[in-house]
Amino acid sequence: MLTLLLAPFRVLINFTFGAVATAIIGLLVILVGLPKLLIPIPAVQRGLSTCANALFRLWGYAMSWMFKLTQPMRWHIHGDAQLHRDRWYMILCNHRSWVDILVLMHLASRNMPMPRFFLKQQLFWVPIIGLGCWTLDMPFMKRYSREQIARKPHLKGRDIVTTQKKCAKFRHIPTTVINFCEGTRFTPEKHRKKHSPYQHLLPPKAGGTAFTLQTMGSQFDAILDITIVYPNQKGATVWQLLSGQLRDVYVNVETLPMQEELIGDYFNDEVFKENFQRWLNQRWTHKDEVITKLTSLADNPPQR
User: Fold this and answer.
1) pLDDT digits (tens, 9 = 90+) for 59-100
2) Tens of pLDDT along 19-61?
């Protein structure tokens, strides 16, 4: 039984499986995407994107298998029964670990459209992964500092225009856009430095969320407020996953209806900006309470 293997062997098996699956499926995605450069016909490109998306879902299934390949993994998922693969969603999620991404991939492979991430420009040059993400039309963001914009004013707003062009491609394929509102992974040190008013969360950054809604809000069927908790509230590390030490994951999914009040010009409308920040802070207060409840369940699981 693989579940009886020592930790080093579990790591070797899980890492090899994940790396091989990523390499093979990533190369297939790239091969599907290469004709997009040669055939600039919208209908053909949409068809190729659909094929690439199907391969992406296959990778999601592979990542789901990693959670149970060498250990008895238990999922505690609440509230996602009404989701559909043929719709558009935006996810608001807390961020504890890089494992969060694999958790969201597991959820997506079950009954959600495959997710899209906003990626740093540098990731484009990562072998296989960069080209694979480009084929899947994931937006690569190039951020400009205040100093760069001061020297070259024409750069102001360029990243927004780029994002709008990329998001326009999501209209043809049901998509889930993932937004880690905290902007970085939670750690006790970051929690202290930011003087967070929340017990389990960092303060949310409203700008990215508001911009995504401004760009695609009319297309989203709903907002998914997803909360992830690991046992003892420790952010699960990749090592814990690979070595089989991660046995339980608690997830709460709340489906929020789209509201016209959430779509507006965050960067130029001060009234809208204030109202949107208030709405997101209220969601974060609620999420903090949900984490407290899930943490209690994780620390005191019901007797079987």
Assistant:
1) 999 988 888 888 788 899 988 767 888 889 999 999 988 899
2) 999 999 999 999 988 887 788 888 888 888 889 889 999 999 9
Give a yes or no: residue 48 inside a domain: no
Is residue 21 one of the residues assigned to a domain? no
In this structure, what CATH number is given to the domain that contains residue 217? 3.40.1130
Write out the two tokens for 266: 């965050």
Range of the domain at 84: 74-299
Is 26 a member of any domain?
A: no
Number of separate domains in the chain? 1
0.70 exceeded by pTM: yes
